[in-house]
Amino acid sequence: MLSVTYINREYRKTNYSMEGIFDSVKSVLKGRMEIRDFYADSKVSRLKNIQNVGKHAGPINHITGDVNFLAMGMRGKKNILTIHDFGFYENPVHSIVVKTIYKYFWLYFPLKCVDIVTVVSEFTKEKLIRYFHFPESRIRVIPDPVKPVFKRSLKDTLNQQPRILQIGSGDHKNVMNMIEAVKGSNYHVDIVGWPSDKEKAKLDEYKISYSVTNSLTDEQVFEKYKECDILFFASYYEGFGMPIIEAQAVGRPVITSNIGAMKEVGEGSAILVDPNKPAEIRAAMDALVNSSEYYNEVVQKGFKNAAKYDYVTIAESYYKVYQELDNKTGR
Question: What is the pTM of this model?
């Protein structure tokens, strides 16, 4: 029987966790292959974790992300590495020293120790090739799956005060331009994350109705999708953009950016806007709220798009990669 050991960071029971993504994959493949798990120990050094992982490595090892450096402890094994994005590597706030350490110990050296890299989008694939010249023949594009908790739940009518859901915080999430977009409107902004003091001050200054929650479970995030009327997810950068697909699977229209992975994931099914133009963002919101026909049209396109990211389909894609590597005799 095929045997795969999943190499994970320390377990985190939070939404959008890599653990949750691959738990859904494993639930499909259970019984068809032997599944083992190794979790990094946050209480010991990275060097110790590299030493420990070699003792637990199996015939095929799948590093699920964020602990890429553990590949260096499994030389000689058949290894798969999943790269979700290059956000940390590209972040301009990091010093040269930090960026250099990350470049070599999270990417350059680990890439020398793996047979196949899976990436979640063509956007990330292009960056992997450009930055590290990794052979395209050894890259597989497998999107993140929609977890089964995010089920279809259509709205009969919109909220009297339309609710705009914003998932995530940080400058790259473009919360400030969303705030500028809803200024002077009747919209309620529901933020899941940790908005900055500057963002909260701007919300108060404009007298915008808003609420903030964080550290939610998948089930609680599902409730947020059901409560909202529109998902705003027009970030400046995303490696993939899972909330786009989750909201579409539930049955909510999505406004997202016309750049990068978000365009790749949402084009033809979400409303694409220039993330730098609040007026364009506001026009997209108003168009959805003012026309039930248009609203429902976008929702139906979203259902069709989300079906491509069904967790069973994605699990089968990974299974093919495991079979491919199992049959491989040499790199």
Answer: 0.85
